[in-house]
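F.,

This is the one I mentioned.
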């Protein structure tokens, strides 16, 4: 592959990622952040909503975008990718090893490179052998992936939101200059609450995500407000919870 072809391929990938990001960001217009503004006691003026959007949306994309490259693919997705690679390698290998006079008329002669020069642009015997190696190894790789042991227990659906939680904690503390507090359950009213505005803030973020994420992406966030509160409670270690109780009693 020449430098121009590599650059063109890189630009194509970047364009695809940019389009994916634009599609994701289009799901969250500025007005979708009104509830978050109110939770933070910020007037929901258009300019403030736009700032909130710019403040939070990159993290939404980083941790919750359903097509983001950082997400670990499922076993089914991994096998599907390997099969696509194998099919592409098989097709290209067949074309290169079974070309005839008609094929030669369609391509310029300089597309074939001397095999003794590995740095020369074009198709070499080594490149063709690499394609065959990909085809041969793909079947074994698919078998290895299929035979991997599944993780025991139910999959953690909230894992992306769990990774987002410490980001929300830091952002809240930097903005409000006050510590984020662990939410607690109120038995009389049977609701969750918390000291300060952290829990209302995260609850508003959760509502924003639940409203604007597509259905296939909502498994990445807690399904109910109770599950949200429990997820936040699990963020703090047990010793910090005890320290908070001691401080409360001391007061």
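My design for it:
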């Amino acid at each position: 592959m020449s430098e121009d072809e590599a650059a063109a391929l890189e630009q194509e990938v970047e364009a695809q990622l940019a389009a994916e990001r634009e599609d994701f960001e289009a799901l969250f217009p500025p007005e979708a952040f009104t509830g978050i503004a109110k939770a933070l006691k910020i007037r929901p003026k258009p300019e403030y909503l736009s700032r909130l959007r710019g403040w939070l949306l990159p993290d939404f994309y980083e941790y919750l975008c359903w097509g983001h490259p950082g997400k670990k693919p499922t076993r089914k997705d991994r096998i599907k990718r390997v099969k696509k690679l194998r099919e592409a390698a098989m097709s290209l290998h067949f074309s290169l090893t079974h070309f005839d006079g008609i094929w030669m008329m369609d391509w310029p002669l300089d597309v074939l490179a001397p095999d003794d020069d590995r740095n020369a642009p074009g198709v070499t015997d080594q490149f063709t052998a690499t394609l065959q190696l990909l085809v041969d190894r793909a079947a074994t790789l698919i078998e290895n992936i299929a035979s991997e042991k599944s993780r025991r227990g139910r999959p953690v659906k909230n894992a992306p939101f769990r990774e987002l939680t410490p980001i929300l904690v830091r952002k809240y503390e930097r903005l409000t200059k006050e510590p984020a507090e662990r939410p607690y359950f109120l038995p009389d009213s049977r609701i969750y609450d918390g000291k300060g505005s952290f829990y209302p803030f995260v609850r508003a973020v959760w509502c924003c995500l639940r409203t604007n994420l597509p259905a296939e992406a909502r498994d990445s966030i807690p399904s109910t407000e109770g599950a949200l509160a429990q997820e936040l409670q699990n963020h703090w270690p047990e010793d910090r919870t005890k320290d908070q109780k001691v401080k409360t009693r001391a007061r």
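The longest strand covers residues 184-186.

Talk soon.
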